[in-house]
Amino acid sequence: MSRKIKLLWDFRGPDAKKTAEHHTIHLKEFATIENLTFHEINIQEKNEMLFSAFITVDEKDMKIYRDALKPHRGEVG
Q1: pLDDT of residue 76
Q2: What would the DSSP string read from start to end of the chain?
């Protein structure tokens, strides 16, 4: 079974939540256009001024997403 990798993009400031929510739209569009699989696309709150948009993908697909979308960071699991 392949490991899952969570790729994250951080957004800061008073509009961080709305920006992160909007970014998830583009993540879904990219996966659809490129015919790539993913497990989850969502946002997570660190605090009221820091939100992250993320996509969870299989390790085998991670490089495709990473090279095309340039996430700020990644996490295993």
Answers
A1: 97
A2: -PPEEEEEEEEESTTHHHHHHHHHHHHHHHHHHTT---SEEEEEEEETTEEEEEEEEEHHHHHHHHHHH--SEEEE-
